[in-house]
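Subject: for your reference before the review

Hello V.,

The reviewers asked for a structural picture of the protein, and I figured it would be easier to keep everything in one thread rather than splitting it across files. Below is the amino acid sequence we used in the manuscript, unchanged from the supplementary table.
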Amino acid sequence: MHHCLCVDEILREIFRCIERRSTLCVLARTCRTFYNPATDQIWETLTAMEPILRHLSPARLVKDPESGSYYLALLHPPSEDDWNTIRRLSSRVRKLHILLGRRVPLRDAVNDAAPQWFHHLASPPDSSFLFSNLRALSFEVDSYIDRSSTGDAHARISQAVIRLFHLLLGPQLSALRFELPSSLYFHLDIPSIPVLCPNIRTLSFGKPDLYCNGAPVPDEITYRFSRAVPQLRRLETVRSYMTSWGLLSSLAEAKALRKLWMFLPHKLSPVPRRPCGNIFPQLRTLDISTRSLTLCLEFLRWASFKELTGIYIDCPLPTGDRDFLQILVDMSSLISSQYKNLEFLWIFIRPFDDREIVTAWPRPMLEQYRAFHQLRVIALQTGYSLTLADNDFEDMVEAWPHLEMLHLFHDDITSPPVHLTLRGVTALLYHCPKLKHFTLMFDATRVPGPEGFVPFFRGTLVQNTSVRYMGVYISPASESVEVATYLSILMPYLMAVGVKSAAFWSEWSWICTRHQRKPAIEYYVDAERVYPVPGYETEYDNDGHAGDGQDWSWTCYPWDR
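And here is what came back from the structure prediction:
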């Protein structure tokens, strides 16, 4: 064996690149040198309690009579030896995800009088027996637990769950996420969280409902959180499904806050006076999921984001907004007048609106950003057809030489009019040499100008070597050798083409087979799920699934891979 493989630090760096637990288990059995670094890596991230439970003497595989599925149950409380096993294994864990839901019945099916494992683990000999070196905790309780018991039984279950949660908190934690049913928050000692975890940098709290809205939480609970947040002096990233002006005021005074994801409902109390002093002083990324563009605009007017570089607004089902287009224009005017460092702009809105669209939409909105030459990302998805013509489009993209991603498209319109042509696409790639991904609706049935299949713009041959992905949505195309050759020269390193429906699938497939790189043709999905921009990934995707983002993606991994 090479001498460098005897260096513990090198082995740990190598083993961190291995994703499958089974591979790490093989490495741990290979030799004594590999054993400790491989074993530490095996236990570093735990996304279920079963790997620890199955090492305990009272653990048995039990069939749930209701669902027919099997789960690990503890038939009696852990012994002293069992607790030593728990301490030995859990001390290796740095990241822990606990999910209490339907797969964890509230009572053991073998012995109805025996409580489930979280009751036992909530009463250790002392707190040092449970995950003493934990750095990141994700604690999720399904609403099923809230609905499946009443009276004294519900109180005992709630107290056991919250007691276990509090036992896992400690000064070593730097990341904390918890999603609880509303009733459990009344048992939670919210003011103690900053005391127990003063070093938290990443915090996620609240729970999405079935439609990815913030689940209802009593005002008293939101008020307690608004009092606790200012005590977390090192807080850098926050995701909150709870919303009140008091909580927003507390977050505004968090001096170290750099990334904020928030849910805005369709209605809040009247806008209060802005807090005194410099608010949101370090915020770089703002991610808003909302049901009201009007309320979103009120929040942006209320707040102050002098250092903001990225903003993401997702409004899938707006309610109570009278004029979506004018609000978007007003919002863009506000953003462009205040956020001078903006590099990332992403707005999704899907209203049910069949009104006649103003000419050259979305130019009234996008032209507000022409002075932002540093923009790297622009994405606009609406329920309106984009009526930009080639000349309008060229005037705008000329202002963004550093653009790396551009997505302009409608949503759920069966046969939208197409105004852009390959001439507009050529202008985009001429003015934006760093562009890597784009989505546009354009006419690809013929090539522009007298030059035939050679892409010229302003007398210059255009070859953009940066583009890797082109989303064409439902752009019309023809099985033309000239079109295929034109695109092959224009984007020589194109790797994928995204098509929304079968309308022109065969034509785009034909074009791809004649491109020099033979790019893959694939079904188009929302661009932010497939092509995130390095440095500007939001901490969480806007699909309501906490844990999908950068900080909590590990919670989605199965423990028995």
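For the response letter, the relevant points are probably these. The first strand starts at residue 45 and ends at 46. The first helix runs from residue 8 to 15.

Happy to draft the paragraph if you're swamped.

O.
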